[in-house]
Inverse folding.
């Protein structure tokens, strides 16, 4: 190690850049490691969903290219964690940290360059999340949409429910281009609701015209929206059903929060909240009017002219109250809020994981790089599991988007700072 001088216990430039360079180098190596893992994962997903559908390799290559920002965004926090563990763990196991402390340095002098690396990674990661990721997602969606036109088989999977514009497909087992136990729910231009069932279905790519489904042993049930008791049914040995190209494209045409910057998502949320409040107020007004009419009918009793309508008014009141609750529990708004907090929590995960990695690395006694790799992988898996569980709880169970996205970072910072304070006081 190079000879280093200290002035009043302060860290010299030489030692600062030595620690900084060690952490930066370990970060880049770790970044390549995680980038390769997530890249292979993305490649395997595309091999399953796209390559087996015989999509041209050039288009697959561009899809992978547009996936790079998301892979980079995922890799950076974990690379900051693993890089800190490896660099600090190596210096601790080779007694470099001990030499620094006995030479007059304090733990603060070691913490500063490490936290600076974590801060830089956080800012770069935020830029990737807020600029490159939306751009990549938009281009990915455009290309995927164009692929759907020529290869609509991408949208038909086994044992799944797929919604197109006004059409719901429920599929059974899929073998090559044949589907068992197909169920189709749709609505005709005349307003009739149809249920179509078939024992087997052959999928035919109609090119620019969309998708043809040749249904074998089909049964069709059609009923009017206003009069459910008035219905027709028919059976057919062979029935052809077509899903238009425009319906396929429209299904992929909505802009998601992932394709927007944090600023755009914020303004979208504010506008959506304003629209929901307005709609909710109107719905509450209608509910109140129905409740007042029902109260009036009950007060006047059998002599009132609306007495016979009380049952209908009660059912209308219950339906309006339920609709008001549905308006407040807006699923799309919850998704955008979750994505908004995710755009900040993921980049901040870099500095949070550095806080956790630093005291663990300092506690390493031997084989610092190996132990750093082991601890890094364990913490990465736990952190990733927390993110996935939190995201699912926010989407499916309606938990607070803030806490579901920030809890893992907050825990990492609290545990890391607690361990740092304990080590300094020792």
């Amino acid at each position: 190690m190079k000879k280093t001088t200290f002035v009043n216990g302060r860290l010299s430039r030489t030692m600062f850049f030595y620690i900084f360079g060690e952490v930066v180098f370990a970060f880049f190596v770790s970044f390549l490691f995680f980038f390769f893992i997530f890249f292979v994962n993305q490649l395997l997903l595309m091999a399953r969903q796209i390559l087996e559908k015989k999509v041209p390799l050039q288009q697959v290559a561009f899809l992978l290219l547009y996936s790079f920002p998301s892979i980079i965004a995922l890799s950076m926090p974990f690379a900051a964690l693993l890089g800190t563990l490896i660099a600090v763990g190596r210096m601790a196991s080779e007694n470099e940290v001990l030499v620094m402390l006995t030479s007059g340095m304090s733990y603060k002098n070691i913490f500063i360059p490490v936290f600076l690396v974590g801060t830089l990674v956080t800012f770069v990661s935020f830029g990737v999340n807020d600029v490159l990721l939306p751009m990549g997602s938009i281009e990915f969606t455009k290309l995927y949409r164009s692929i759907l036109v020529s290869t609509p088989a991408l949208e038909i999977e086994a044992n799944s429910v797929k919604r197109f514009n006004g059409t719901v497909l429920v599929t059974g087992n899929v073998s090559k281009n044949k589907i068992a136990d197909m169920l189709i729910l749709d609505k005709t231009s005349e307003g009739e609701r149809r249920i179509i069932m078939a024992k087997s279905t052959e999928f035919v790519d109609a090119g620019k015209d969309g998708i043809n489904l040749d249904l074998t042993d089909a049964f069709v049930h059609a009923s009017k929206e206003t009069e459910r008791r008035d219905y027709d049914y028919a059976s057919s040995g062979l029935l052809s059903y077509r899903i238009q190209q425009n319906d396929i494209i429209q299904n992929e045409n909505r802009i998601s929060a992932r394709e927007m910057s944090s600023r755009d998502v914020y303004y979208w949320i504010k506008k959506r909240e304003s629209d929901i409040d307005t709609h909710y107020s109107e719905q509450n007004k209608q509910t109140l009017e129905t409740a007042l009419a029902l109260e009036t009918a009950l007060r006047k009793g059998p002599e009132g002219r609306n007495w016979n309508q009380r049952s209908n008014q009660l059912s209308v009141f219950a339906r309006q109250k339920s609709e008001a609750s549905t308006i407040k529990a807006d699923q799309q708004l919850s998704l955008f809020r979750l994505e908004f907090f995710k755009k900040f929590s993921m980049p901040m995960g870099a500095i949070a994981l550095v806080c956790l990695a630093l005291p663990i690395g300092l506690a390493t006694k031997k084989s610092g790089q190996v132990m750093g790799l082991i601890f890094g992988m364990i913490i990465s898996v736990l952190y990733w599991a927390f993110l996935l569980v939190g995201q699912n709880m926010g989407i499916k169970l309606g938990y607070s988007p803030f806490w579901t996205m920030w809890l893992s970072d907050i825990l990492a910072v609290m545990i890391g700072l607690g361990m740092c304070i304990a080590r300094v006081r020792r």
